[in-house]
Amino acid sequence: MSKNQLSAINTQEFENVFTQKELEVVVNSIAKGATNEELALFIQICKQNNLNPFKNHIYFIKYGNQMSIQVSVEGIQYLAQQREDYKGVTVQLVHENDDFEIGVDPESQELKIEKHTIKIPRGKVAAAYAIAKREGYPDKVVVIEADEVEHLRTKSGSQWKTYYNDMFKKHALKRALKLQFGIDVDDATGAQEDNVDSYQPRERKDITPEDLDQEGEVVDETADIQKSWDEIDAKVKSSSLTKKVVTDLVKSNFNKKPGDLNLGQVTGLSKLVDMKIREAKKEEALEMEFDFQEGQLD
Predict the structure, then answer these.
(1) Sorting pLDDT into bands at 50, 70 and 90, what band is 9?
(2) What does the pLDDT average to over 28-50?
(3) Per-residue pLDDT at 267
C-alpha cells in the first residue's frame, strides 16, 4: 500500500470501521483506483451507515474518472433489518400461467396481493412483486411487469441475461424496502439502484466487485478469477502456509465459499495471503535467530 495514498486520510478516525489489514484490502482491491477524497468518502459512508464491503453491502465503482458508490440489495436489506419496526419482506415471481390478482386496500390505498396460485407448467415470467412489512405501517407492495425490465435483460453484457429470475426478484425486493423504510444512503452520486445504467463504460481491465443486484455493464471475470486463484495456489505452495490458512481467510473476511468469490474479493484475498506469508517468514526468522543463540550458549 502506498504511503502517499493514505496520507490525506486519518486512519485513526476509521479504526472502528476497518483494521489496518482490512484498510489495505479496501485501498488495493475494493476501492482500487480511488483518489484520497473518494476513498475517504467511501469509508465515511461505510462508517455512518454501518455497511460492510466485505459482506457485499456496498460497492465502490469507477469507470474512468467517474465514481459511483452503490449499496447492494444485501446492504439495503441489512439496513432495514437493523430497525426495530422491521417485520420482514417477501418476494415472488409471477408466471404467465399463474392465477394472480392485485387489489387496492380501501383504507390505506396501498396495493395488496389478492390472489397468487401457481399452475404447472408456469410459463414465462410475467412480473415480480415484493412485500415489505413494517410495524405500525401498511405493507408496501411493489409490482413490476416484465416489460418494465426488458431493457435490462437485453442490455449488452448485463447479468440479467444469465441470472434473469434472481435479478428480477432482487430488483423488486430492493425497491419495496427502500419505499417502506425510506432508505436512501447519502453519497456523492445518490446511490440509487439504477444509477450504474447511466454510465457508458468502455473496456475495463481492473474492475470493482459487482454482485447480482447491480444492473450495469459487467465484464466476464471467469478467466481473471482463475488466474488469481492460480497465483494464490502458487504462493501457498512456495511458502510454509497451508490451504487451510487460505480457507480460514476466506471464511473470516468474506463469509463465503472460495468458489463464490468474485474478482475483487479474490484479488483482496491474494493481498491477505501475501501478508500471511510475510508474517510467517518473520516468525521463521525469529525462530532461526533464537535457535542460533541457543547453540552459542551450548
Answers:
(1) low
(2) 86
(3) 77
Q: What is the pLDDT of residue 280?
A: 74
pLDDT of residue 107: 86
Vertex 234: Cα angle to 232 and 238 (nearest 5): 120
pLDDT digits (tens, 9 = 90+) for 173-190: 999 999 999 887 644 443
Q: Does residue 166 have a pLDDT over 60? A: yes
pLDDT in tens, 103-115: 998 888 889 999 9
Neighbours of 287 (CB within 10 A): 10
Tell me, letter by letter, the H, E, C secondary structure of the chain: CCCHHHCCCCHHHHCCCCCHHHHHHHHHHHCCCCCHHHHHHHHHHHHHHCCCHHHCCEEEEEECCEEEEEECHHHHHHHHHCCCCEEEEEEEEEECCCEEEEEECCCCCCEEEEEEECCCCCCCEEEEEEEEEECCCCCEEEEEEHHHHHHHHCCCCCCCCCCHHHHHHHHHHHHHHHHHHCCCCCCCCCCCCCHHHHCCCCCCCCCCCCCCCCCCCCCCCHHHHHHHHHHHHHHHHCCCCCHHHHHHHHHHHHCCCHHHCCHHHHHHHHHHHHHHHHHHHHHHHHHHHHHHHHHHHC
Residue 53's CB is within 10 A of a number of other CB atoms, namely: 27
CA angle at residue 65 from 64 to 71, to 5 degrees?
A: 90
Residues 294, 273: Cα–Cα separation, whole Å? 31
